[in-house]
Amino acid sequence: MDESQWLLERFEEDRTRLRAVAYRMLGSASEADDAVQETWLRLSRADTGEVGNLGGWLTTVVARVCLNMLRTRASRREEPLDVPGRQDGPPVAPREGEYDPEEEAVLADSVGLALLVVLDTLAPAERLAFVLHDMFAVPFGEIAPMIERSPAAARQLASRARRRVKGASPVPEADLARRRHVVEAFLAASRRGNFEALLALLDSGVILRADRSAGPTPVPLTLHGAQRVAKGASVAARRGRFTRPALVNGSPGLVMAPGGRLFLVLAFTIVDDRITGIDIIADADRLGRVEVAVLDA
Q: Which of 3, 31, 126, 189 would be 122's cystine partner, CB 3.0–4.6 Å?
């Protein structure tokens, strides 16, 4: 077997793990595939004769590739891909093979959509330090050179990211669990378009407010009463497929994040296990002030 064939087979052994690293770094399946492909190109051109740990070398390379992609993304801060249910502008057709909503949904579930949302708010170096250390057990001594920091500084970055991921809630644990149950029931009923189940969760005087970026109208929308809110939630069933629970400003809510980038948030007001208010936020400035964290399993 010649060296090029050996390298290819060795790379294929690591491909799944490298894609897992890249997906958690980038939050996008297509971008993760691009990063893995770039890693292969660099391997095929490199002199690895003196590399003792090829798996570690590949992890370092894919991490550096992802770090560069994150920095480029931050400098131009792209808008998220168009997603089902958005009606505030003409749909943007992705390039062929660029975005597979079903694959993204499966991957997001395997990692945790709320986690991807929080990771997207981190600085590139914070994200790298947290992902490599907390998810793939890479020592800080190996992470530090990638971000041009000391091991102690890399540890501090990961710790800061960890606090953002876990978040904090002023709600007592028992109340948090009850609210989460209500929110998850609302999501399940919305996905099924189950009007009666939605009515059972909504207070008769519930008020839903959606900013103008949330659609379907070009102006802010307000709905009053359980009947109108339940009907609106039923109509938005397609969005529910791409929405997951998260901690939103310290209380259970819902997030929609195609490609791991926050697109829309539902914040709930819940009194006596009934939903009395829903605030749908999609405006970029307002989203920037929303604190999202992971809901513990």
A: 126
Rounded CA separation 284/239 (Å): 18
Q: Quick one: 130 and 187 in the same domain?
A: no
Full residue range of the structural domain in which residue 198 is found: 173-293
> What CATH number should be reported for the domain holding residue 182?
3.10.450.50
Q: What's the mean per-residue pLDDT of the chain?
A: 85
- The DSSP code for 143 is H
What value, to the nearest 5°, has the Cα angle with vertex 36 and ends 255 and 49? 145
**Cα–Cα distance between 245 and 214 in angstroms, integer?**
18
CA-to-CA distance for 270 and 252, rounded, in angstroms? 10
Mean of pLDDT values over 69-97: 51
At which of 149, 166, 183 does a domain end? Answer: 166
d(CA 202, CA 200): 6
Q: According to the model, what pLDDT value does residue 64 have?
A: 95
Q: Please choose, from the candidates 72, 74, 65, 54, the residue with its C-alpha nearest in 3D space to the C-alpha of residue 21.
A: 65
Alpha carbons 257 and 266: distance in angstroms, whole number: 12
Contact, 107 vs 23, CB < 8 A? yes
pTM of the model: 0.74
Looking at the chain, the whole-number percentage of residues with pLDDT higher than 90 is: 53
C-alpha gyration radius of the chain: 21
The tokens of 158 are what?
Answer: 């990961």
In a shared domain, residues 141 and 236: no
Question: What are the pLDDT digits (tens) for 8-47?
Answer: 888 899 999 999 999 999 988 889 999 999 999 998 888 7
| Number of structural domains in the chain | 2
Cα 178 from chain centre: 24
